[in-house]
Amino acid sequence: MTEATLMDIDLARNKLLARLHDPAEKALVLLRDPAGHEGGTVRTLIEEILGEVPQAAWAPVRKADRWASAADRPQFPRERDGDRFARWSQVRFAEQPVLRHPLTGEKIDLGEHGKLREIELDTLKAGSLEHFRHLIHRDEAGSVDSWRTLLALWRFGPEPATSGDATGLGELWRYLPADTRIPDHTIWQHLDLSSALTGAFAGDGQGRCALLNVTLGPVQELIAAARTTSDLWAGSHLLARLAWEAMRVVCERLGPDAVLFPQLRGVPQVDLWLLEQGLAPELFAKEPWNERTVTDANPLFSAALPNRFLAVVPADQAEAIGRAIEAHLHEWVAETAEGVVSDLLRAVNLHTDPTTPAYQQAREQLAGFPEVYWSAVGWDEIATDANGEPEADRLAEALRPFYEPQAEAPGFLSSEAWRVLQRPIEVIDPEAGTPATFYRPNPGVLYPALYELSERVMGGVKATRPFAAQHEGGYRCSLTGEVEWLTHDRSHLDLPPGQREGHDTLWSLVAKRHPSWARKGEHLGALAALKRLWPQRFCRELAGTLGQEQTPRFVVSTHTMALATSLARAAEEPNPAGGLSAEQAEAIRNADRVALPRRLAQRLHHLEHGELLARLPGWVEQQRESDDGDETAARQAIRKVTGTEAEAYYALLLMDGDRMGAWLSGGDGTTIPYRAAFHPDLADAVDTRFGDHTVLQAYLDTPRAVSPARHLAISGALNDFSTTLARRVVEECHHGRVLYAGGDDLMAMLPTGDLLSAMRELRDAYSGTATSGEAEEEDAWCRNGFIYRQDRLYLTMGSQATASMGAVIAHHKTPLTAALAELRQAEQRAKNEGGRDAFALSVLKRSGGALRHVGRWAPAAGIDEMSALRDFAEALHANPEASRRAAYNVAGWLADLPEPDTLPPEDGVAGYLEAVLHYQFCRQGLEQQGQPIHARRLGSLASVSPTGDELSSAAKIRDRLSHLVGVAEFLARETRR
Fold first, then answer.
1. pLDDT, tens digit, for every residue of 555-567?
2. Which stretches make up the GGDEF domain (predicted)?
3. Which domain holds residue 542?
């Protein structure tokens, strides 16, 4: 435990009280347990963990519970005695277990898995108690360790597996609702928010809290400068590590639940920190990152954190925490860079003298890196009045400078939601005839405006960032071209590139002894050196932290990725080495083993000839790069082993969730009405009793305001996608490798043959929709925004969330910088030309020229464009002799394509294209006469723009169809050279 947390034992106890104030099984004991939900397990756990609780300790907890409840869900009328909610508003979840997707309102009925009421109440409570007792941590004297117990309850409370599923609920344990009437957010999200607010209230001298918004930069500059896939991975992973170091400051002071976005539970890097904090190692025994060896197949090597976060902090500590984040990050970078310089000097047997110029260069070049932007908005300070009631006037004054000055109510305060939410809603029960308050606002309902203000302030902070001039005198870094390269002798900085070899510069010495750190001729500055050595330093750090033997850490090369499909095909042969000479086979078996895609490595591990296939890419690279190598012999060996020419092309994929800002802020039609969050039984009861209540019906039809639970749900969905679902699609279902997965952003490398199916499955996994038409398995399904796989239920972004993807297919010898530039342009084409929810494919041919196609994920005129492209490519692949002739003939007649307005109206552009394409495809044996399957789909797609608008120019139609057919023909080839 750190010094900061040692000083905050009382704070930890307050947060524990908040985390224990409601039982996890609340949804299933309500209306069933005579002890009430605040008796039973809650009372027992509080007594065992906290002992006697002073009455004063409950004050911040009650305030936090009220605010959290109001921020996340409406209140409901109580009966006349005030003890129970009105009977008509009660939902018996055990009998009607329905969950609502928090972003779409779609429901998933769990009743099909058996009546939850069949689980005995005593069994459920005993299992829950056993589960939480298993998480209590004690010190050497046997007393409860408040800090470690708090961390254990946060991390493993929602995990059913830690207790062997003593509750009998399985995956439902993770999704038990906080309120059975509004089952779109979980009890865990409510407890997280209650604990976070309690920590902020208890930690502030006046019981106030604030929202702290933090962003790091630069992002693109850090990732983009890359000559190898290792550089690409290192930039992304280093950025994610910097993000964690920033969040770590908040976590160590206030606990990880203080971070609302992103959701940190289950992130491997955060789990390592929990181990450092002293959590029992056996709790992590089944975590996938807890492997015996440190390799890049380990989830710890995934860059899974975004460069921004939002936290709830004590108002009087917000500024201090913001400055502490800046100081910690700059200190961490300085120490890490100093270690990199020392590693370089030691590697070439140079003294690590502090006066060596490289140390000073690193300090100067990385001063102020990364850029840290933060803003703090006081929740109590500008959103409550003297009585603790919601106060919108001061909030309006704070928001007004960011909007038109004449705006009477800026931002959220002018929304339909706030017009309804700012006043209580009174109803009269038509049966009992008694008045009741259906809804009453408290400051929690102003969370959307507070979040909006924090985002606006952050924008202003970024716009006013200071710039510091930096003097650089010598030749520049080979990778970035912006700063001097590091040196142990400043006179070397004046040497032009062609005159450095004979002078034993730092980098020429490094290139000779550690070619993985620097290629011949490369001379790197501080940031580039930090990226280049980051894999080695991170691997060393993991080996020390996990107590495991260090193994080399590699990233799959573009050449190896190109060969992956051929190697997988060769693995099916009984004797793929049969055509090799004994000398060749021996040479291959003795070659260095390079990194392979995870799925391929696992496949080859169990084969008799797997070792030879695994070492083939390394041997080929040796033949190509060494002075005495024989590249011709290498190509011949690949042909003998794989049965085909060596594949020379690979693919890069870049995915970005659409309108993420709108999803977080609730804008642009991303929210659902309040009634869509209600349990179906409650929705029916409200409509039956109050169908003519104008104000109440207006409330129910109002788009639901942004809430902390919504942010936690979005963050949790993105966390599951980036850490689990995306990796499964790319690395387990295909032969690819994830290079970066931070929330809605994803970059991956794949064999060319896997590209289209991986893109489709990633799109499905992001929104939790089975649009690919694949049959569901009994133990794996995808519906209504939920994915069930390998005994785990995952919440996704839902059917209304869309994503855009760019992909580039490039020769493995194409400079990576050029491939990355095309990749980013492809992603932008998907968003701009495709109108989002689109994909863009680029083919960079080695011989020159490029093919570019933009399509939509959503079907147009009943046609799924990705499926049409994929099916046509498969048809061409099945008839290889016809494929090139078909593409050539189509390109030939396209030159004489008439203008659309000259075609007969009854045929139209689509009909004309279908007729001509069908004629050509029949000639090549791709279609049967009268069955224009591919011709009809391609003709319809080529006649409209990616957004579905009819094309009125023959030139545009020609370009669209020629690129569509050209991409399909390229993908259909057996191999590409």
1. 788 989 999 988 9
2. 691-844
3. 209-288+296-374+470-546
